[in-house]
Amino acid sequence: MTHARGERAALCTLLDRLGPDAPTLCAGWSTYDLAAHLVVRERRPDAMPGIGLKPLAGYTAKVQQRMKEAHPYPELVGLVRRPGGVYGLVPALDSAVNTLEMFVHHEDVRRAQPSWEPRELDPEFERLIWKRVSAGARLMLRKAPVGVVLHRLGGGVVLGGPKGRSRVEVTGRAAELLMFCFGRQRHARVELTGDPAAVEALREAPLGV
Fold it and tell me: CA dist 157 to 100, 135, 178, Å?
C-alpha cells in the first residue's frame, strides 16, 4: 500500500469513529465538511479551481454544500475511502498528488481532538515528506512576511520566504515542518528562533499551497 492510500484509509477510519460533527483544524469545518471537500476535490473537476482561486471559491463552496445535502456522512466517508476520478485509475498519480494532502488532512482531524500527540512515522515516510517539503518550500512559504530557514531534525536545511529580511529558524521533524508550511503553524511541534515580532508574524501568516 502506498503512503497516500495508507493515510487515506487511516483518515477514513478516524472520520468514521468521530462522526460528522467533530472539529478539524480547517477553519469553520467539521469532519462532515472535510469529507465533502475531499470528495469535491477528487470527483468534481468543475469545482476544483475554486479550492485555490478566491474568485471561484463561492461556486466551490456551493458544490461542497450540495454534496453534503446529497450524501449522508457515512456515504461521503465511503467515497473518500475509494480514490476518485483519475486518482482511482492511476495509483502513481494518487501517490504523487495525494500523499501530503491525505497526511495533512488526517492530522487536521487528529490535532483538533483533545490530547493529541505526534505520530511515530516510518523513517522512509519521514524522508519522503522531507523531500516534498524541500521541493515545495518556496511555494508554501511564498506569503511568509520574513525569511524562513527550515531545519529538519536528523539533517537537512531549506530556505524560504523573502530574501533580505530578518529570518526565523524553524526546527522540527519533517512531518512537523510540513504541517507548519501548510499553514498549521499553531499546531506544529516545532521550535522557532528569531526576533519575537518576526516569529509572531510568521505564526500568523497565511502559509500553504
Answer: 19, 12, 13
Structural domain containing residue 196 = 123-204
- Placement of cell 482511482 in the chain: 88
Per the structure block, which three cell numbers stand in for 154? 536528523
Strands of 157-160's sheet in order across:
157-160, 147-152, 167-172, 191-193
Judgement on whether residues 153 and 100 belong to the same structural domain of the protein: no
pTM of the model as a whole: 0.93
- Average pLDDT per block of 10 residues along the chain, 209 residues long: 93 98 95 96 84 84 92 96 79 87 97 94 95 94 95 92 88 97 96 95 92
DSSP strand pairing (167-172 vs 191-193): antiparallel
